[in-house]
Amino acid sequence: MLGVERRSAPVAPPFPPSRPAAREGACDGAPARRRAAPTIVLLVITGGLLAVLALWWSDTPSVHGLGDYLTGAGRILGLMAGYGVVVLVALMARLPPLERGLGTDRLTRWHAMGGRYVVTIIVAHALLITWGYAVTAHEGLINEAGTLLISYPDVLMATVAGLLLVGIGAVSARAARRHMAYETWYYLHFYTYLAIALAFSHQFADGASFASDLKARIAWAALYLLVAALVVWYRLINPLRNAVRHQFRVVGVRRESADVVSIYIGGRYLDELQAEPGQFFRWRFLSRNLWWSSHPYSLSALPRPDVMRITVKDHGDHSGALGDLPIGTRVVAEGPYGTFIPEQTGRRVLLLAGGVGIPPLRAMFAMLPAPVTLIYRASGPGDVVFGDELEAIARDRGATVHYLLGSRDRLGRDPLTAGQLNHMVPGLHRHDVYVCGPAGMTDSAIAALKAAGVPRKRIHHESFEF
Ligand SMILES: Cc1cc2nc3c(=O)[nH]c(=O)nc-3n(C[C@H](O)[C@H](O)[C@H](O)COP(=O)(O)OP(=O)(O)OC[C@H]3O[C@@H](n4cnc5c(N)ncnc54)[C@H](O)[C@@H]3O)c2cc1C
Questions:
Q1: Disulfide engineering: 169 pairs with which of 2, 22, 119, 395, CB 3.0-4.6 Å?
Q2: Does residue 287 sit in the same domain as residue 366?
Q3: Which residue's alpha carbon is at the smallest distance from atom 38 of ligand 1?
Q4: Assigned domain for 229 exists
């Protein structure tokens, strides 16, 4: 059945007792934090690339004959690959300005796309250099490859590194990833660090640009060291520091529906985290079976100085185990991350949630100035969570909640059409819209919103997949 209804149910106070939902941790007045703009980041990356090419230019007085051309092209590609891997690692170093300015999903997309280019460049570098040497030495390609591998130990190590990176690229291809557990894919990625370490000495031992240029060697090593330090700091030390400072612990677990639970994470000085509605943390619960992996979950209410809440649907091993977390379990929380944050534009706001997409929108709903409309799409009444809280917020703030119930299969059509949306939200085309839900629902909702006249740049969405 398709139901468009306004719910009114008795208000159940959230657990543990918290401020009235409507006044929950408004983030107004929070000091502005540094955010990198995507264009600036691209310009910096391009600037670095030009500097790398200048390095080749400055130490290559002339090029004569096919062998030189091939070797020269191979060297340029080698320098580009050496620089490219550093950029790829830096994108994933969880640097706060990048995470806030570009967002984890965009960084992940850039990393994936860049990874494909870098792997291709590494293969082309190996082929062109070997071919160039073979032409110059009047040798066959296979013979020359053998000579290089036997005579230069650093080349052998770099070859192993290149093969590792090609392998990681292959398992990251969409088709391969589909058949692999997320954790398997994730931990295989750690071999990237081994590959970078193996290839590093090759660059100084065999790279003509570095052999006679001490300044270039120092600058190159400094670049690698800087990025390594950032990775260690932001991915390792900072989360541990935060865990000690904030003393995160599970203080409550509440079942919201048959397959959805809310976890309350207590701690101290949580306001220092400056988390905003719509953001997420990577949570590592230090229980016997969960300590080894961290998973991203959005805040489903704004943090108070002493407690945060996430709300999780059972999707698999990790999410399914959270309902059994013992109270008192220590937690390492990394974040806040994400750019799915309401912008203060003065326009009306529509929040459009599909199923498990409700948590970040529930947090936004509590703090956005009226008038706000929330459309909550779910397969049936049993899948609706936070009904009471949403009603309380709506009442308190003069906001509107519409429930759109019924699975697509049972309805035989998608209920999220432009006509339906326009009917529920008068003046829809003048709204800022925030959408969160399963990929299929999000895609069709965005298409319907565009058809209803909402400009694309005013439609913001969060994907629960990297
Ligand atoms: C930014 C973001 C915010 C999210 N917020 C919520 C939320 O508020 N509530 C909620 O229920 N779900 C949320 N998710 C989805 C949630 O992270 C996954 O459902 C959960 O990690 C699945 O893990 P699993 O072991 O239970 O299931 P699995 O069966 O192991 O994984 C199911 C799918 O989840 C993804 N996934 C698994 N592990 C990870 C990981 N460590 N990091 C990233 N993705 C992973 C993969 O795409 C995988 O195919 C969010 C995801 C992202 C990216």
A1: 119
A2: no
A3: 182
A4: yes
Q: Flag whether 138 is in a domain.
A: yes
CA of 296 to the centre of ligand 1 (A): 6
- Structural domain count of the chain: 3
335 lines ligand 1 (CB under 6 A): no
Give the type of residue at 180: M
Residue 5 lies inside a defined structural domain of this protein = no
- What does R_g of the chain's alpha carbons equal in angstroms? 26
In this structure, the answer to whether residues 60 and 111 fall within a common structural domain is: yes
Q: Report yes or no on 274 lying in a domain.
A: yes
* CB distance 466 to ligand 1 below 6 Å: yes
Q: Which residue type sits at 255?
A: R
Q: Which domain holds residue 387?
A: 349-461
pLDDT tens per residue, range 34-88: 677 899 999 999 999 999 999 888 888 788 899 999 999 999 999 999 999 999 9
DSSP at 368: S
Q: Which amino acid is at 393?
A: I
Provide the whole-model pTM: 0.89
* Same domain for 397 and 267: no
Q: What is the pLDDT of residues 155-176, one digit of tens each?
A: 999 999 999 999 999 988 888 8
Any ligand 1 atom below 6 A from CB of 284: no
Q: How many C-beta atoms surround the C-beta of residue 463 within 10 A?
A: 17
Q: Which residues contact 19 (CB under 8 A, 6 or more apart)?
A: 25, 304
Distance 334 CA to ligand 1 centre (A): 15
Q: Is 28 in the pocket of ligand 1 (CB under 6 A)?
A: no
